[in-house]
C-alpha cells in the first residue's frame, strides 16, 4: 500500500480499487479474501503499465531513490515523479552485518550499476534517507570498501539529496523482499508486446521496407 499509494495520482479510481485492502488495515479486521486478491492483482498490473510506469526521456533529469531494510535494498528510477523502473535485492548474511551507512551505499551502487545505461554521461540525482550520505564527497573515507565504492562513482555526474524516511515509501517497500517477494518479482519483470508492435509497424513504413528488401 505504501508503494502504490506513492503513485496514486496516476491511477484513476485508486481509492475504490484499494478499498478491499484498506479495510484489512482496520483494527482486528485482517482476513484475506477474494476481493483483496483481486485488488492486489490489479494494483500490481497498474504499477507496471502506463500512465504509472512511463518510458525514459533521455533529455530529462533522472532521479534514483534508494532505501534499505535489514534484509534487502530497493530503488526506483524516476523522471518528473513518474517511475521508470523498480529493482529490489535481498542481502546476504555478510551484507546484513554491514553498518546502516554501508547498506545505504550498497543500495546506491546497486541502483547506479543497474541503470548505468540511462545515467552515464548525464547529470542525475540520488535520493536517500540516510542524511550523512548527502555529504559523501566531503567525508573522510575510512574503510577500503567505502573507497572502492566512491571510485566507482567518480565517472558519474550526480548529486545526493536527503529525503526523510516517511517520504521515501516507494523505495522502502521494495527494500523488503522477504515480505514482498511476490510483488517485487512482478514489478521487476514487466512483460510487454512492444517488440511485436514494432515489427508489425514495419509493414506500413515504405522506407523501412526498402531497407529490408535491400538487405
Structure commentary:
Strands 3-2-1-4-5 form a five-stranded mixed sheet. Helix 2 packs across helix 3 and helix 5 (100-114) runs parallel beside helix 7. It has 215 residues and is an alpha/beta fold. It folds into two domains: 2-47, no CATH class; 62-188, Ribonuclease H-like superfamily/Ribonuclease H (Nucleotidyltransferase, domain 5), CATH 3.30.420. The model is unreliable at 179-189 (pLDDT under 50). It is built from eleven helices and five strands. Strand 4 (123-128), helix 7 (144-153) and strand 5 (157-162) form a beta-alpha-beta unit.
Explain the layout of strands and helices.
Blueprint: H1 2-6, H2 14-22, H3 34-47, E1 62-68, E2 72-79, E3 82-90, H4 93-96, H5 100-114, H6 116-119, E4 123-128, H7 144-153, E5 157-162, H8 169-174, H9 181-188, H10 194-201, H11 206-214
Parallel strand pairs: 1-4, 4-5
Antiparallel strand pairs: 1-2, 2-3
Any key phrases for this structure?
215 residues, alpha/beta, Nucleotidyltransferase, domain 5, five-stranded mixed sheet, 5 strands, 17% strand
Short précis:
This protein is α/β, with parallel strands linked by helices. The chain has helices spanning 2-6, 14-22, 34-47, 93-96, 100-114, 116-119, 144-153, 169-174, 181-188, 194-201, 206-214, and strands spanning 62-68, 72-79, 82-90, 123-128, 157-162.
Please indicate the count of domains.
2
Task: Output the radius of gyration.
Answer: 20 Å
Number of strands: 5
Largest sheet geometry? 5 strands, mixed
Instruction: State the share of residues found in helices, binned by percent.
Output: 40-55%
Distance between the termini: 51 Å
Shape: flat
CATH class descriptor name of the largest domain: Alpha Beta
If you average the pLDDT, what whole number results? 81
CATH superfamily descriptor of the largest domain: Ribonuclease H-like superfamily/Ribonuclease H
Strand content: 15-25%
What would you say the CATH architecture of the largest domain is?
2-Layer Sandwich
- What structural class results from the helix and strand content? alpha/beta
Instruction: Give the SSE string.
Output: HHHEEEHHHEHEHHHH
- Detail the poorly predicted runs: 179-189
Amino acid at each position: 500500500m505504501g508503494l502504490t499509494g506513492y503513485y496514486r495520482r496516476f491511477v484513476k479510481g485508486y481509492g475504490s480499487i484499494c478499498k478491499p485492502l484498506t479495510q484489512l488495515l482496520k483494527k482486528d479486521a485482517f482476513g484475506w479474501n477474494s476481493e483483496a486478491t483481486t485488488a492486489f492483482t490489479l494494483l500490481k498490473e497498474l504499477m507496471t503499465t502506463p500512465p504509472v510506469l512511463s518510458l525514459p526521456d533521455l533529455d530529462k533529469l533522472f532521479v534514483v531513490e534508494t532505501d534499505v531494510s535489514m534484509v534487502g535494498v530497493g530503488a526506483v528510477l524516476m523522471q518528473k515523479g513518474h517511475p521508470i523502473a523498480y529493482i529490489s535485492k535481498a542481502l546476504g548474511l555478510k551484507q546484513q552485518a554491514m553498518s546502516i551507512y554501508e547498506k545505504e551505499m550498497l543500495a546506491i551502487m546497486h541502483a547506479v550499476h543497474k541503470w548505468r545505461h540511462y545515467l552515464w554521461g548525464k547529470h542525475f540525482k540520488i535520493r536517500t534517507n540516510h542524511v550523512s550520505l548527502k555529504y559523501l564527497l566531503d567525508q573522510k573515507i575510512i574503510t577500503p570498501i567505502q573507497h572502492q565504492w566512491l571510485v566507482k562513482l567518480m565517472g558519474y555526474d550526480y548529486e545526493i539529496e536527503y529525503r526523510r524516511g516517511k517520504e521515501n515509501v516507494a523505495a522502502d517497500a521494495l527494500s523488503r523482499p522477504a515480505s514482498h517477494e511476490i510483488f517485487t518479482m512482478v514489478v521487476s519483470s514487466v512483460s510487454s508486446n512492444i517488440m511485436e508492435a514494432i515489427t508489425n509497424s514495419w509493414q506500413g513504413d515504405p522506407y523501412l521496407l526498402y531497407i529490408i528488401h535491400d538487405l
